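Regression check, pantoate case 280:
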Amino acid sequence: MQVFQQISEVKTYILSQKQQDKTIGFVPTMGALHQGHISLIVQSKKECDISVCSIFVNPTQFNNANDLSRYPRTPELDIQLLEQVGCDVLYMPDVKDIYPTTDTRQFNFGYLDTILEAEHRPGHYNGVGQVVSILLKGIEPDKAFFGSKDYQQVMVVKSLVDQLNLPVEIISCPILRENDGLAMSSRNMLLTLEERKIAKLVPKMMEESREIAKKNGISAAKSYIHNEVAKVSIMKLDYYEVCNADTLEPLTALKPTQQAISLIAVFVGNIRLIDNWMID
Ligand code: PAF
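Current build output:
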């Protein structure tokens, strides 16, 4: 695997591959890689000739300085995992390579800017828009692969690509789960043993709330989640919503013709976990 720290080096490499008619797949990450990330590389390798991964903990998407400083960083392990899966290129820039000057761009993601993650983490998706646009413009991949655990992020990135007219296909990939159902996340490694035991309740609640929504309606599902979270002292609900899966507009009732999705953000101790489940 080639490891580059500067975008100019990545560009030279990509150009030489494109001159040989190779297609480029790209997986942007913030490192602390887990099997969910690795599944994105596997997908990229299936669909493209060359796979590029980036690791960059993007400061502009953190709306909380503590969250940024404690974000897990495991570069040696990340490199090992990427080597093992056969990733071709790792781009590991420092802040100056991504932001030689302060990025003052403000994106407008419309309705997506006002709900769920955007409402609870103001400025988060603007920072995602900044870094993803810089990465996509620098690497110029044919396809970029994103996990659907952050379902809203995939929609935001699709909107970004449309707005900037970037010639890249955004591929949304399924959530990978631990054996007990917890959605894989770099943040899981920050959980204490006690918190990790509690965290496994999240997918259980989501599964049960899906059944309740189907049987008794969305407001019953919401009450269930609020009550269950309230039972656990170290859990705090940020939001739980059932939305139209195409637009993320909140639903009050399920309709057979409309795919619905339930989305949750919940603190276990100080660690904020997100998850989503399709309601079919
Ligand atoms: O999903 C993430 O890990 C980040 O938001 C991303 C897309 C790598 C941008 O920093």
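Comparison notes: The chain is about 40% helix and 20% strand. The pocket of pantoate is lined by residues 28-30, 58, 61, 128, 131-132, 150, 153 (CB under 6 Å). No diff flagged against the previous build.
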